[in-house]
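In keeping with the milestone schedule agreed at the kick-off meeting, the structural modelling team has produced records for the first pair of proteins. Each record is given below as a sequence line and a structure-token line. The laboratory manager (R.T.) confirmed that both were archived under the project's standard naming scheme.
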Amino acid sequence: MNVFSQLVSDIGSLLEVYWLAYLKDMGNTLILATVATVIGFIIGLACGILNTIPYSKSDSPVKKFFLKLIRAIVRIYVEVFRGTPMVLQAVFIFYGLPYFTGGEMQFRGTSGLWLAAIIIVSINTGAYMAESVRGGIISIDPGQTEGAKSIGMNHFQTMTSVILPQAIRNIMPQIGNNFIINVKDTSVMFIIGFTEFFARHRFITGLNNMYFPSATIEMVGYLIVTLTASIILRWLEKRMDGKSSYELVQNDNITMTAGTYSHPNRGTPFDERSGEFGAAEEERERIRMALKNRNGSTRGER
């Protein structure tokens, strides 16, 4: 019990002095993770679309060559950045640029660190998102693509109006998962000197050697952020799903003229029992009853 009391006391003393620094660097982590996830999604979306452009034997050799070349480039990019650790990618990008340019090009100052961190995390995220987007696109029923083409849509219109809205909804869990991973994986940016939440922990423990109390603060902080992000992302998924029950559109002229629509009060112009022709139907029924009564009375008199 004394150990836990000491832990709470140590955490309190750390927060008393460094709470503003912890909060600021957690903000840096959130900004970096959010921006990198958005940019990575855009990169993955572009790669996923380019990787699924169809071609046939009847297409020109030039078109087939360029499409195959694009797919090869995308595949190399995905395999390289998915198959290597982000910390090494950070080293290659941040230190490799001045190495190959003789020091003429390098990331300088705070803005340079931010730019380098965003580029590193975005490119890494884009490699994972490229495969997620490709999987989301090919998961859509091919019949929808055929139906879009049958009404005159080209590939671009089919992708933007039919396929992508459904594919993006299908991969929303992966997008959220990548964001949560980025919140945690930005901790490797200390390797280039970028100050984020984990870098603050390293700095503080270097001053007072309170490793475990500071690590406890870090664990709780990361957990709060990731749980909040999960709740928000699930809410977004439900919003994208729409309502659980749907009503038939009441002003669809195509459906009405096709005779498959039944207005709650009028029916359709082709429905003999609809309210629109109710008066005529009642008149016909009255005439039939009158003829029936007259014929019946005539036979009775005979």
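The second protein of the pair:
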Amino acid sequence: MNTPMPQSHSFISDTSEPAPLIPEGEDEPPEPGALATTPVSRPHRHTFGQIVRFPIHRAGIINPAARLFRKKFFPGISTKLWNDWQWQVRNRIHTAARLEAMISLSDAERLAFTTAARALPLGITPYYMSLVAAHDPDQPIRRTVVPTVQESIHTAGEADDPLGEDAMSPVPGLVHRYPDRVLLLLSDFCSTYCRYCTRSRMMGHAALYPNRSRLEQAFAYIEQAPSIRDVLISGGDPLLLGDEKLSWILSRLRQIPHVEILRIGTKVPAVLPQRITPRLVRMLRHYHPLWVSVHFTHPDECTPEATRACSLLADAGIPLGSQTVLLKGVNDNLDTMRQLVHGLLKMRVRPYYLYQCDPISGSAHFRTPVQTGIDIIKGLRGFTTGYALPTYVIDAPGGGGKIPLMPDYVEGREENDLVLRNYENQVYRYPDPCAACSIS
């Protein structure tokens, strides 16, 4: 049966139904043979000692906070149903009335529902809502998903599309910014909406639908551009498509000879870890080399459920990298960032990028000085493993791409030596003869 697409929900609408899942669509079947048929072994099952005390295949995992939350707000819901990702999406908290029944709204949060009717919709899975503090509006997790009136305050330099994606979109839903790779946006639907979302201008308004005709335009563009060797699939969240629809998309891309790498960008392991099922993982592993970029922002997201989700993906040979956004009042201090990157490594996720928050409209309350990010990287370098160090970048407004920012460890030159300062602030010299002064 063809389920309708998620409809737009403004903050002030408390009577609308929860957004349904993105459908497979009767007019959108997978290509014949799109599902790979090569037999694969099951992911290796094991325990994680002190990190996680359960078999990796066990689906009935509920952390203590989630268990208490479920008992209070969803009495009678079984563990099996709670861990059904489709149930989680259908029961998202998406209205002010439902939200206020679960937490005490601050004045700034309550005002958001009367002054930002056209802004990014509210949407939080029950699982992720269980991590939200009921009485502390300054809790980091809460700040990332509960709207405040500050979102309606626009400051200088902000824009709805600060990265200029719309201007770099040769066909709908495809962004071609870099020479050898493209960004393919499948939909505008997420299970949980981050209040700092770069694409908040389009998310949750049923403006971007994963229908076959639009996707075929994107595939045709990629086929005609042999320089494209890498496709990043994002949205919205691509993992909210059904397994068969997603398999058809991956299969279709794999039919393009010059496409070498497929990547999926998702926040599902953090906000909807129930979606990472053995069936999904068995499907994904058919399309190697496949990488998954996950989005973790705070160490409180590193729950047993998230660990299980990442472990299933890693056990399938899928490399995981986290893209974290630097956010004021959320993770803008060294201790929090250290806890986060260490937690990610324990989940076999490599901290990949630390993004300076994009200047989207209404984001001033999230943005930190750039120096804050540089100081955090400086505080990590040398004091923890290099695997835990993300690259700090600004995604340049106007479509300039990612520009890395690093502390300056080069003090200068003294004759044929390069003068360096290390993580302990000690000065060292490295022999590096000047090319113009070298003896031929």
